[in-house]
Amino acid sequence: MFTRIEDFVVEWTREAEITANVLDALTEDSLGQEVIEGRRTLGQIAWHLVHSLHFMTSLGLVFDAPSGGEVAPASAAFIASEYRRISGELVNAVRTQWNDATLHESVIIHQEAWLNGGSLRFTMMHQAHHRGQMTVLMRQAGLQLPDVYGPTYDHWIEKGIAPLV
Ligand code: NI
């Protein structure tokens, strides 16, 4: 869990940049790429990732984060721009509405007490989880991937280095 607001802000800002870069690589044609037939598509996962930030409003934070997200937009650029906007709103809300003491307070979620600092960590890991799903689908859809944690296959090839297996 996070115990200091500043630690969250620094880490979230770095993580959100990685996520935004991945979303920037989406194309309209790729959004229909399915996990398996009849299940979530790349566009739905991306849109879920964006809209899931709404969860933080149930912890008392007030910011403009729409809920829902079942129907993904047709525009890949819109998904990326909405992510940047809502992610920025979240950081701003945490920074201005909470302090380090708030992170040790808890809220009942599904009949369990969740510490706010733990919820921030959960939200960050949830984002990484769906980002990982997306990069596999993006590869299957034939897209080039940006660096995530270190160079991707494309980046190695570009540099003329044999990619790691
Ligand atoms: Ni999820």
Automatic annotation (TrEMBL):
The keyword Zinc does not apply. It holds the Pfam family DinB. GO terms for molecular function: metal ion binding. A divalent metal cation binds at residues 48, 126, 130. Keywords: Metal-binding. The keyword Metal-binding applies. It comes from the Bacteria. InterPro entries: DinB (IPR007837), DinB/YfiT-like (IPR034660). Belongs to the DinB family. This is DinB family protein. It comes from Paenibacillus agri.
